[in-house]
Amino acid sequence: MQANIRPINHLWTHDDMTLRPRKQPPPPSQMCITLGQFLEKTLPQSTSLLGDLILAGSVGMLVAPRGCGKSLLAMTIGYAIAGAKLLEPWGIGSGAEVCLIDGEMREQGLQTRFRLLNAKNTKPNSVMRAGQNFHIISRDAAGDPIGSIDTLEGQEAFDEIIPYSAKLIIIDNLSALTTSGREDAASFALIKQWIIRKRLSGVAVLLVHHTGKSGAQRGTSVHEDLLDYSIQLSPREEPGKTAFTLRHTKLRDHLPELKGDFDGAFWTADDMLHFRIEAAEKSVRPEDEKILALRQQGLTQQKIADAVGLSKSMVQRRLKDITAMPRPDQDGAETED
């Protein structure tokens, strides 16, 4: 057996060539305690992987329509953690080990993206850390389907490959790494148990998933039961860039600095992948004119959302902002080119 590998054996774990018994569950008398006992427990501080959002053992989901930049953002999040880089609006990565499980990209395309991402990093120490701490499991690179995370056999196959030292596992994406194509509660049950086992071992999981026509994550809401946070991207027009509006649609912890919308964009220039994200301003955006025109025609918010490629909730927010902001013909202000 290789070192630093989680084996499929349920009785033993393997770390640095040392076999040791897997932690057994506590007796029933310790599994149900009183409130007084619970309040007296000394608990370890949460271990940050990326700011206060991604913690050791946390579970998150990144959802977006196709072509909106969700895989690029997932890679960037993983790279920031592995390379101990600052990534707004979340904070500084811890330098922990990350494992990306990619289920859909060609090996050449994946390598190109990582080369562009790595080229933007100007700090040699961070480049070195990312190179050592970011692990990639790619079906195309391996030349093998490996398995699917909605079967026990597939989970065991991935558990044999995932480095034991990885503190974050990125699943990109949920549809590509499952077998049936169904997205109901029953088909997610095995995945849910696998995620729970990761959480109990202190490993964080980030699921990348597609949105449906409504703009929300596709499939059953059971997907959201375990989530500590959920990040939703909605497409935004910005010429020559993969632009989006980012919103944290679920935050289990109190993180007021992450409330509200953020405008982000990826673009390639000078053989580097550039990324910018900032708090969304209440200003006119390219899609606003179309949203307002369709609303004046009497279309429902859902039909407007379908027409412009945004979620219904995003259209609702844009309409609220459009009607609240002063128009140029009202106060004589000039608009920026």
Automatic annotation (TrEMBL):
InterPro entries registered for this protein in UniProt: AAA+_ATPase, P-loop_NTPase
SMART domains linked: AAA (SM00382)
Domain AAA+ ATPase: 56-238
Top-level taxon: Bacteria
This protein's name: AAA+ ATPase domain-containing protein
Organism in which the protein naturally occurs: Trinickia soli
